[in-house]
Amino acid sequence: MELFSLLLTIPILYVFFLLWKWVNDSRDQQCYILDYQCYKPSDDRMVGTKFCGEVIKRNKNLGLNEYKFLLKAIVSSGIGEQTYAPRVMFAGREECPKLEDGISEMDEFLHDSIGKLLSKAGVSPQEIDILVVNVSMLATAPSLSSRIINHYKMRADIKSFDLTGMGCSASMISVDIIRNVFKSYKNKLALIVTSESLSMNWYTGNDRSMILANCLFRSGGCAVLLTNNKALKHKAMFKLKCLVRTHHGANDESYSVCTQKEDDEGRMGFHLSKSLPKAATRAFVDNLKVITPKILPVRELLRFMAVSLVKKWNRRRGSAPKGAPQGPIKAGVNFKSGVDHFCIHTGGKAVIDGIGVSLDLTEYDLEPARMTLHRYGNTSACSLWYVLAYMEAKKRLKKGHKVLMISFGSGFKCNSCLWEVVRDLDDGNAWKDEIDRYPPKTLLNPYMEKYGWIQDEDISTFKLPEEI
Length: 468
Hints:
Layout: H1 2-28, E1 32-38, E2 46-47, H2 49-58, H3 64-75, E3 83-84, H4 87-90, H5 99-121, E4 130-135, H6 144-152, E5 159-163, H7 170-182, E6 189-195, H8 208-216, E7 221-227, E8 238-247, H9 252-255, E9 258-262, E10 268-272, H10 276-295, H11 298-316, E11 341-344, H12 349-358, H13 363-376, H14 383-393, E12 402-409, E13 413-421, H15 447-451
Parallel strand pairs: 4-5, 4-6, 11-12
Antiparallel strand pairs: 1-7, 1-8, 2-3, 6-7, 8-13, 9-10, 12-13
């Protein structure tokens, strides 16, 4: 009898052991953000209206029609006068940059933000186990991750990754890489370094599809410290709940809407196609189809299902008008039932407006993205962290709140993820010294006031004045 009891106990204990091991491993697979540091370049790199005029005047390939196009683009962009450009622009060498310009631009950001982040978090460079660097348009040898490892004298067994060509959605891809590495290794510290190099990628031609990028992209960067060490959970700021990546690279139209290419004169630039809004919408809808069931409560999903069934029934009976909007966006899903804050990529005013309409967001929801676009411009993959920092500086992020990040990138990609705020947050980060000035009374920039006279000029008699 005792032998029978023992034989019965062993498999029961084994089942409990497997259950405990599964729970313990699941806990170690969590992904937390311990801290992050957005880069704030020095004031001597600030791009004002006067400086923009000087840069445009230096480009001898532009004519009156291009000036009118640029004026319209910058006035409607949502960008203000306090964004930042690389030093090569202020040296007047944007037409003939050198590799060292791109490297020094990155070094200035790397040494500032990584140093501040590690100091603030109380972490030594030698404690970093994983390093992911994403800079889309600068690939060096040795790599940028190697430059960081050399500068901070990190360990020889560090796992490093360099991402190029990922575009504005690279931050999410970096988080996804770390999340997957965390599944195999316990108690690790990871560092994400995200930025974009503009020094060697300023377009000096007159192709409108490539000039537009000059109006939107600005300098920036962010360093993010993550961990799966449950012992550090009490120090964490955010916990990753889910992440969804959508890639439409197989679609030829989507693939070609954002490309680095040469114009007819051989000048390198970044081409933005007129099909970009269409490609972004397709990717956004497909991404929402996957992430929506993961982030919304069951009651909202049931309500949505009931509404959809009723609409489908009405269409079959012929009571719905032909061509009525379909899909998850237009069907009336209440995303606020599962999300408290929306961290939207600052790809431009049209991008922010489009997401706002699609998700039925208020101006309060869109304010962080609008203010970030106005203050810092489109800083590519790192823009999301400036938006997040704005929310934190405004003391909006409270324990238990959910933050949905949405980003778009060349390829074409749409990536999104949901973070849970682990504790009340109120650090100002890059907004610390000026958050009280936002939002301003108006987001109108002074470009039209200063250069509006161009609209009345005639191409047959136009001559650019000495002072503009």
